TrEMBL record:
Entries under InterPro entries matching the protein: AAA+_ATPase, ABC_AA/LPS_Transport, ABC_transporter-like_ATP-bd, BCA_ABC_TP_C, P-loop_NTPase
Pfam families: ABC_tran, BCA_ABC_TP_C
Domain ABC transporter, residue spans: 6-247
GO cellular component terms, A-Z: plasma membrane
Source species: Marivita cryptomonadis
Keyword field contains ATP-binding: yes
A single GO molecular function term of this UniProt record: ATP hydrolysis activity
Keywords, in A-Z order: ATP-binding, Nucleotide-binding, Transport
Protein's recorded name: ABC transporter ATP-binding protein
Length: 249
């Protein structure tokens, strides 16, 4: 099997006596959507933070395209090809849609703030931003203030921001959160085709979306991966039903 695009190896993180990440080794392979599910407090956000560089693990490692990036900060990982969308929106509400995409591309690329005014007249940057907006279906809103977008459109915009860096892997933290049925359907269709461009590690509570999209699912409970498998394997797993879905086996 080809080398995973993104991987964690024996990742561990303690908060005092609590082990929030307990020996987690997961792979994200080319072309796949790998969903991470688990009850509240299972350690999904803590795991994502270590993968993206916001939190340093106590032990274990993170690998991107075969390279150990454990010591790299968030920005370095973004530059190395890790595209991220957030659970809590990181958009600038008073700025336009286009400005948000350019700002995101700049911020992640490590360019200092003082070049901001020049960035908007940099046609290669704005062309890239427009291409990303076109892809997520927001091009006609390029000059709209972000605050005027619907919740669903903001989610699309976050994906556009991530797209500008041509990521090699995406990490998405609850992209469906707050979307209505129609919004979820649209985003599900979009992610479905996005996986062929870059695989997606997807943390998501919306089980309809997870079951519709995931090639593989890993189930996290008390910081541990208790099972990894296909949708059918996870649905049929006795351990998962007992530990997570709360059903009597
Ligand atoms: N900075 C912190 N200090 C102490 N404990 C923390 C910290 N961050 C998280 N925890 C604890 O670690 C455990 C895992 O939390 P985490 O937020 O990663 O879970 P989660 O699966 O993302 O939950 P949710 O689905 O509710 O977002 C929880 O028990 C939480 O209280």
């Amino acid at each position: 099997m080809s080398e995973p695009i993104l991987a964690t190896r024996n990742l561990r993180k303690n908060f005092g006596a609590l082990t929030a990440t307990d020996d987690v080794s997961i792979d994200l392979r080319a072309g796949e959507i790998h969903a991470i599910i688990g009850p509240n407090g299972a350690g999904k956000s803590t795991l994502i933070a270590q993968i993206c560089g916001g939190l340093r693990p106590d032990s274990g490692s993170v690998h991107l395209l075969g390279r150990d990036v454990t010591a790299d900060n968030t920005q370095a990982r973004a530059q190395a090809g890790l595209g991220r969308t957030f659970q809590i929106s990181a958009l600038a509400m008073e700025d336009s849609v286009l400005e948000n995409v350019v700002l995101g591309a700049l911020g992640s690329s490590g360019n200092p703030w003082r070049f901001w005014s020049r960035a908007l007249s940099d046609t290669s940057l704005t062309a890239k931003a427009d291409a990303a907006l076109e892809r997520v279906g927001l091009i006609e809103h390029r000059n709209t203030r972000c605050a005027e977008l619907s919740h669903g459109q903001r989610r699309q915009l976050e994906v556009a921001v991530a797209l500008t860096l041509s990521p090699k892997a995406f990490v998405m933290d609850e992209p469906m959160a707050g979307l209505g049925a129609e919004g979820s359907k649209l985003l599900t269709a979009f992610l479905d085709q996005l996986r062929s461009e870059a695989p997606i590690l997807l943390v998501e509570h919306d089980m309809d979306a997870v079951f519709a999209l995931a090639d593989r699912i890993s189930v996290l409970v008390y910081g541990q991966v208790i099972a990894t498998g296909t949708v059918d394997e996870i649905r049929q797993s006795r351990a998962v039903r007992e530990a997570y879905l709360g059903e009597e086996a």
